[in-house]
C-alpha cells in the first residue's frame, strides 16, 4: 500500500518508531543520532526517508510519528514535503504528524517564508517547530522534544494521547483557523 | 633507395617549416655544407623537397630518415629569448612608458610582469599585470588588467611574439593558477595513487556499518546509492580544480505554459544573469546531490565546466 496508515499494524513491544521525511539526508542522520542519545525507557526506532511513498517491499514496524523536515533555504525541500504529504492517510493527522522547519535564523538565505510552512501545518492541523539542526546544542533540544512527543504518540505515556498533545500544542502555539 | 623510404623522406622533409629548414638540415648533419650550398632554398617547397630527396637518394637509409625525424622533434623551434625581446619591443613601440620584466619558471614557462604607464606618466608599479606563458602550449594566463584599453595590445604582443596568428580569450577565470592549468591542460582527472580497485569499496561500506546504529533505518538506501554512483561518474574520485564562480548570462525569450502570458508576448529576449559563487565551486556542485539539495544527475550546464574549460557562459535562444 502506498499510503501510510497509523493503525494498520500491531505495535511492537515497548517500541516507538518515528519516520523523518526530508531531503537533507546528512542533517536527518545527525538528528537521528541526537535522538538516540536521549534517555528513553522505550526502544526507539528511527526511519529516515527522502520522500514518500516508501518502498513497499519492506517489512517495517508501525509508525507512531511522522516528522516532515523543511529547509527554509530550499524550495526544493518544501516541494518534496508537499508531494510526500499526499501519501499519508488522513487519520495520521490526529496528532501523529508534525513539521520541522529549519533555517529561519538566517533570513537572508530563506527562499521560503516562515508563514508558508505555518500555513501548511495549519492546513494539516499539525504542529510546526522552528529549529536549527546545524548546531549541536539546538539539535539536542529538538531531539529531546521529538523523543517525548514520540513516546506520547506511541502510547507509552499513561494518561496522555497523541490527540491530547495536539490540542495542548494547538491552543498555545498554533490556534486553529476556526479559533481566530 | 626503396620507394617506401623515399616516401618517408619526402614526408618528413615536407613537415619542416621553411623558416627552420636550414637549421634542421644542418643539425641533421647528413648533407655536407657543399651539397646544401648547391640547393636552391628560394624555390617552392615541393620542388625543394624533390631536390633534397634526390640528394639523399644515393646514400641514405631508413635509419637516416628516422634520425631526421628525431632532429625535427628535438630542435626547440621556439626560442625563448626571441619571444621575450619581441614581446617587449611590441609593447614599447606602442606605449612609451611601459616596463616589462621576465622570469623563467619551470616547464618552459615564463612569467611576465608589465607595469603600464601613459604618454605622460611613468609606469604605475602598484597595478601591474602578470602573464604566464607556457611556450610548449598555445596558452597564456593573465591576471586582470586594471586598464582595459591595454588588453588588446597585450593580446597582440603575445600573439606576434609567440608566432601565432590570433589570440582568443577563454571564458575561464579563477584565482588559482594551478586549477586553471589543470583544467586547460586536462590534468584534473588523474588520480595519483594506484590501488587495487576492489579494496577501497569494501572499506567504504564497512565504515558505513560501524557508524550506523541498527535503530536507524534508511528507507531510500537504493536511491542514495544511485545518487552516489551518478555523482562519482560525473565528477570522478579526484579532487576538483578550484574555481570561485560560474556565471550564466541568459538572453532568451520567456517561455510559459499559459496562453496570453504578458511576458511570453515580449518580442525582445529577457536578460538575466545567474552567478554561482563558492570558495570551491566544483566541490560544492559535487556535494549538491548527495546532500539532497538537488537531483542527480545535475544539469550539464554545471557539470561541463572543467570539460569545456569555461565558467562564463552566454546562453541564447537558437
Could you explain how this protein is built, in words?
The complex is a heterodimer of chains A (180) and B (318). Chain A is of the alpha/beta class and 180 residues long. Chain A has one domain (15-167): P-loop containing nucleotide triphosphate hydrolases (Rossmann fold, 3-Layer(aba) Sandwich), CATH 3.40.50. Chain A contains five helices and five strands. In chain A, β3 (65-71), α2 (75-85) and β4 (97-102) form a beta-alpha-beta unit. Chain B has helices at 3-15, 21-28, 33-38, 45-57, 62-74, 80-94, 151-161, 177-184, 198-211, 221-235, 262-265, 281-288, 300-303, 305-308; strands spanning 98-105, 109-116, 129-134, 139-142, 216-218, 245-252, 270-277, 312-316. In chain B, β1 (98-105) and β2 form a beta hairpin. The longest helix of chain B has 15 residues, at 80-94. Chain B starts with a helix and ends with a strand. The model of chain B is unreliable at 193-210 (pLDDT under 50). The interface between A and B is medium-sized, with 26 and 15 residues.
Please summarize what this structure is.
Chain A is of the alpha/beta class and 180 residues long.
Structural topology:
The complex is a heterodimer of chains A (180) and B (318).
Chain A: E1 15-21, H1 25-37, E2 43-49, E3 65-71, H2 75-85, E4 97-102, H3 114-123, E5 128-131, H4 136-153, H5 162-172
Helix pairs in contact in A: 1-4
Chain B: H1 3-15, H2 21-28, H3 33-38, H4 45-57, H5 62-74, H6 80-94, E1 98-105, E2 109-116, E3 129-134, E4 139-142, H7 151-161, H8 177-184, H9 198-211, E5 216-218, H10 221-235, E6 245-252, H11 262-265, E7 270-277, H12 281-288, H13 300-303, H14 305-308, E8 312-316
Parallel strand pairs in B: 6-8
Antiparallel strand pairs in B: 1-2, 2-3, 3-4, 6-7
Helix pairs in contact in B: 1-4, 1-5, 2-5, 6-7
Subunit structure (chain A): Component of the CENPA-NAC complex, at least composed of CENPA, CENPC, CENPH, CENPM, CENPN, CENPT and CENPU. The CENPA-NAC complex interacts with the CENPA-CAD complex, composed of CENPI, CENPK, CENPL, CENPO, CENPP, CENPQ, CENPR and CENPS.
GO cellular component, one term (chain A): cytoplasm
Protein name (chain A): Centromere protein M
